[in-house]
Amino acid sequence: MNAPNFEGLDPDTALSAVEEAFGVRPDGSFFSYPSYVNRVYGFKAEDGKDYVAKFYRPGRWSIDAIAEEQRFALALAAAELPVVPPLMDLEGDTLPALSLERGQEGLLIPFSLFPKRGGRSFDADGPEDMRRLGSLAGRMHAISMALCERQPVRWRPRIRPGMAAAYAQELRASGAVDPRLYDEFMDILSEAAEAIDGALQAAAFSPLLLHGDFHRGNVLDRHDEGLLAIDFDDCCMGPAIQDLWMLLPGRIEDSRRELDAALAGYEDFMPFDYRQLSLIEPLRLLRMIHYLAWQARQRSDPGFIEHFPRWGARAFWEQEMEDLRTQLLVLAR
Known about the structure:
Shape: globular
Structural class: alpha+beta
């Protein structure tokens, strides 16, 4: 089945939709950010302000799920955390939708507008930098806990037992796996799902609303203003360690100093259950399987092969099998 895509969405159409919804008139200049998942355009308005318009990939998230992501960002901004919340349109909403005609059926593409916030990539050079990253995660989670107590999260994904098995089933039904490697690959996925489920059940964590993809590439350094967390597109419910392990430069045995520093900063704002450290490698394995399932879902998109030219070949699946086996060996230690 073909996933919905951005066919028919060009910059002129996108910026016209932004002007109509938000009353912000572009001055004619724009550039496209190198994002495959969504369509993201930067532009300057006639009032001299810089903006970023984000058009969400059709079918990836429901409107309700995107609204929960944005509610989290707005709550963080209201608590003066360094994030970029969406702006309100002329109707007081943050998520208007563009309707595109496509044959006999129409396609709705939700979009949002943000003020542009620049910054350089944050290269954590030592323990103090890692403590700053941990502090930012702890502050986000403190707001998350209060937010979830007021209004339960219903639409964002949840990291829980069964998640890896669901991704495996999606890959099994996708027809994407090389048939010569299919049985062997599925056996590996079954073993991986069992290992992940066992780890998640043993940890017995209390889920929080998370950034979900909190690695150094999603943190900008704005010099005198400090750090800025960006891209909440993978916001989800899960264990706190999900927003910490991707900050590390390597596996836990090679990153103990950085981990200790990040946790010290985290615990300035939130208590941390150290039993969750056992989830780092299972979560790494889950991320690998999740990414494969997402790619299989998008492979019919016209732009997919441009970004992933070797995806789906026998050599690709052989490498994925080797990587999954290696990660399973790490879990078995």
